[in-house]
Amino acid sequence: MSFNIKPKYDKKIKKSDLVKLFWRSIPYEHSWNYERMGNVGFTWAIMPILKKLYPQKDKFIHALKRNLELYNMTPYIVTLPLGISVAMEEANANNEDFDETSISAVKLALMGPLSGIGDSFFWGTLRVLATGIGTTLALKGSILGPILFFLVFNVPHYIIRYYGTFLGYSLGSNVINNVENSGMMDKITKYASMIGMMVVGAMTQEMVSVNFITKIGVGKSASTVQSLLDGIFPGIATLALFGVTYWMLKKKLNPLLIMFIILVVSIAAAYFKILGA
After folding, report:
1. Radius of gyration (C-alpha) of the chain in whole angstroms
2. Cα(169)–Cα(173) distance, rounded to whole angstroms?
3. Best CA proximity match to 5, nearest among 185, 171, 180
4. How many CB atoms lie under 10 A from the CB of residue 171?
5. CB–CB of 76/122 below 8 Å?
6. Across residues 102-121, what is the average pLDDT?
7. Which whole-number Å values give the CA distances from 220 to 208, 216, 217, 224, 228, in the listed order?
8. CB-CB contact of 196 with 105 (8 Å)
9. Among 150, 123, 244, 173, which residue's Cα sits nearest to residue 3?
10. Which of 91, 77, 229 is closest to 173 using CA atoms?
11. Closest Cα partner for 109 from 187, 209, 220?
């Protein structure tokens, strides 16, 4: 893997920093949470690099807050966006005119497409292959079953995770240089933000479920409120919940309090047979 990149500024990030980034990416999902998913793991992985790039305490804290936004990524390829992010952070640290909002925009834009590829390969293909090999031998009483399952899944995983760190950094550095030379940073930020918002919207629709089970009508002609809503505007209940949640966030309510409110309302609605599975 080539590490010879010729940027317009002196590099602060060394190969040793990226190797440390690789190791710190391994517990990425250990701090996964329902509020912002993998944000803590992502930020913890790049924290030493951020401290190196931003020796001033206020800038370092600002960079930490910027990276603590919602983020979710297949853990086995998370080093690719990590590498791209640190390359952009390095450009931001060396250029006062750099648009730091582009860092978040690019991160969000990559979240959906990369996770789709990662989930399909690791969960849908490699894990199935490893399970098939491992269980076949395990059913015959061979100790090689669990050993081969572990190796078939994890050897490709760690190879991809390791080289993905350097690939992401290289891609990020080269793209930034080309973009800065062409003056297209504003357009890149705008389109990446649009894609990022589309990804977040798709995640909301996929991961949030609202089902009104109250029936209208009698006998066989009775229909649930949910079926009527879906007939008018599929997903409108989820959209409404998203709107209410966004409104509460704009009112500066604590996210944990918002989650508690949703929990209490959901339990009450289920008890009175308004909502159901």
Report:
1. 23
2. 6
3. 171
4. 14
5. yes
6. 84
7. 29, 11, 9, 11, 15
8. yes
9. 173
10. 91
11. 187
Helical (H) or strand (E) element with 223: strand 223-224
- Which pair of tokens denotes residue 168? 């992401």
CA separation for the pair 121, 158 (Å, rounded): 14
What are the two backbone dihedrals, phi and then psi, of residue 2, each rounded to the nearest 5 degrees? -75, 140
83: CB partners within 8 A, 6+ apart: 18, 21, 164, 165, 166, 167, 168, 169, 170, 171, 172
**Which are the contacts of 165, defined by CB distance < 8 A and separation ≥ 6?**
18, 19, 21, 22, 25, 79, 80, 82, 83
The dihedrals phi and psi of 155, each to the nearest 5 degrees, come to -65, -50
Span between the terminal Cα atoms of the chain, in Å: 50
Measure the CA–CA gap between 235 and 227, rounded to whole angstroms. 11
pLDDT per position as a tens digit, 216-251:
877 777 788 888 888 888 888 888 998 999 899 899
User: Alpha-carbon distance 161 to 129, whole Å?
Assistant: 19
Q: Please give the structure tokens belonging to residue 167.
A: 């690939």
Query: Cα separations (Å) of 227 from 49, 102, 137, 200, 218?
Result: 51, 41, 48, 25, 15
Mean pLDDT of 112-126: 84
pTM for the model: 0.70
Pairing relation of β-strands 215-216 and 223-224? antiparallel
pLDDT confidence bin for 27, thresholds 50/70/90: very high
| 3-state class (DSSP) for residue 78 | coil
